[in-house]
Structure formats: structure tokens, C-alpha cells
Input
Amino acid sequence: MKCSGLNFATGEPIEISFGDLITGVDSLLAPPAADQDFLSPGWIDLQVNGFAGVDYNSPDTPHDRIAGSIREMFRTGVTRFFPTVITGAPEAMRGALRNLAGARESIPEGPAMEAFHLEGPYISPDDGPRGAHPARWVRPPDLDEFHRFQDVAGGNIRLVTLAPEWPDAPRFIENLVREGVVVSIGHTNAGAVEIAAAASAGATLSTHLGNAAHPTLPRKTNYIWDQLAEDRLAASFIVDGIHLSPSFLNVALRAKGLDRSILITDAVMPAGCTPGPFRLGEIDVQLHADGSVRLRGGTRLAGSALQMDHAIQNVMDLARLNLRDAVTLATRNPARIGRIPGRQRGLNPGERADLVRFHYDEGKITVLETWLSGRQVYP
Output
């Protein structure tokens, strides 16, 4: 297989040869006919709770509906993602993980489910940091329970978000890291000492930094500043124009640096749907016309309806990033931070042939074609 376009990183015309892996990247003497069509690695999203009306947190979601939601994700340029299971009853969380593991093995779109993200239940019980997670199921870290989760997930849990202020959290983090799991700080009310201890124990990421927080915080020291200042932590950001202000986004990107920043969507099942009421597990939410997903009858955000192609557009607009840097936040950076093999060197021979060809003009990205391990999955 071959495809041609402009290299997203350099703007030079290239032709990529590939099977399931990229076999060659050759410069072209003349630009391709469609001189505004770019080629890049496929987008990666480390936090997707659901998409296109499909809830990944339900143990009863049919596999064919999961497959359909992934096909819709291919339309947005995403080729690898981490289905994300949030805080819930133990049996419900195990059921959701078991169902996702079964889908990963049984549907043609399964390889796009690179690994799983466990967001909770080991988070802060406090209003604000807890976000929209149900309070009654929040609980302290339990290594035996985590192993039960990992067993039903078929060993696919690779990312865990937790609050490091729980007693013995550093020991829990150390155990997960030894087992090859990436640990992220999130939904936390931790102090500076606890955040530093988590990083020393092996935590390497902050989950949707700037969100899941109290509405007001101490001016001089708080868990957002402390995570921004901790150079051992990378950070993920929901750039939908709703979750973060442009000023915070710009300051956070400068604090973390572009090499330690990634884009996520934190998409929930209403993403890609028309506005209206939805139910996420035991939580009633509303997708509003402005694209926000909020608890029904309130203002608290409950995930997002963001798509990754729009996130890339938004970070270019709100943070004035160029195309190369914006795409890197959705490709090489999450591949490195999420420990995704074969996706960390960009458009180079030997890397997985996860590719996206897209049109970019006047600040708008239009995905034209998507390949997953060399197989065209969109259109």
C-alpha cells in the first residue's frame, strides 16, 4: 500500500509505503495533487468513556455497538484509544472490563482498543475533586481488588488514575508500576508532599489537569500548582473550550512543556450525538447545544463530547500552536506516555501503519482517510 501527502511535521511532500508497518517514507519531487492534504500518524486518545451513543462503562453493551462506536471514532482520525472505566460498584466495574476485553478480542475493530484506563475508584471522596464520579463507590486503593480488575480485563489495564492522598498510596503506586501500569494523579485533594511522594513512587501523569477540582482554591499552594510544578509528571488536557480557560491552558502548556503534554477527549457516550438527555451508568446527564455534558439539572461537567480532530483544532486556536506541535500532542506524546509500542517515532519505517490523511485549511481539520495497522478503516 502507498499514500501520499504533505508531512504534517515538515510540510514536505512524501509518499509512505506500508503493510501492517511503515516500510518506507520517500520525499516527492512535486507536491501531491491535493496540496493541502497532510499525512500524520493516527491520533491516540488515552481517555474515552464512550462514544457515538455507546457507553463503555456498561457491562451489557453489545459488542457490535462497541464496534460501531469505534468506526465512528475512525472518522475523527483516532486509531488507538484507551476505553476508560470510572468509579462504580465492584461487580459493575468488573463486568464492564470483562465486556471490553471480550470485545477487544472478538470484533475487527478491537485492535484500536490499545489498552484500558481505570479512572477510579481510588479517588478523592470530596465534592469538587471527585467530579461526577458517584460518591458511594469511592474507596481506598486495594491491590487485591486491582488484580481482580486486571484479571477480568485480560491484563489490558495499562493506565490507572488515582488520588495519592490515600494512606499507603505510594506503596500501591510502586506495585502498579512494577507490573507495567502507568499511574496518573487525578480527582485529587492531595497536598504538595503527597503529590511529590506519588511521583517518587512512579506516578508519571496528571489526568485532565485543571479539572475535577474545588471551585475555589488557596492562592499560594494547591494541588493544581503542585502538579504543574512537578517536572516528573506529564499532563493530559481536555481542550474543548469548555473545561479549561485559554489563559490556564496556555500557562499549563508552558509549565509542562510540549514534550510532557497530551490531548485527551474524556469523551462520554453523548459524544457525536445530538443534544438531549442521557444516562451514564447511574448518572443522569444532559448534552447541551454548546457541546458540554453536565449532570442533569446542574452545572457540574460529566466528561465531554469532544472529538480528537476538534481537540487538535482547538489547541491550535486557543494556544496558538502550529500543526506539527498540535498533532504531536495527539500522537507521539500519548504513545510515549501511555507506553504504546510501535507508535513513538512518528512517520518512520518500522512503526505501525496507523495513519491519517487530512485536509487542513482556515483552522479546520477534515479527516479524509484513516488506516489501522495498514488496513483502511475510514472511509
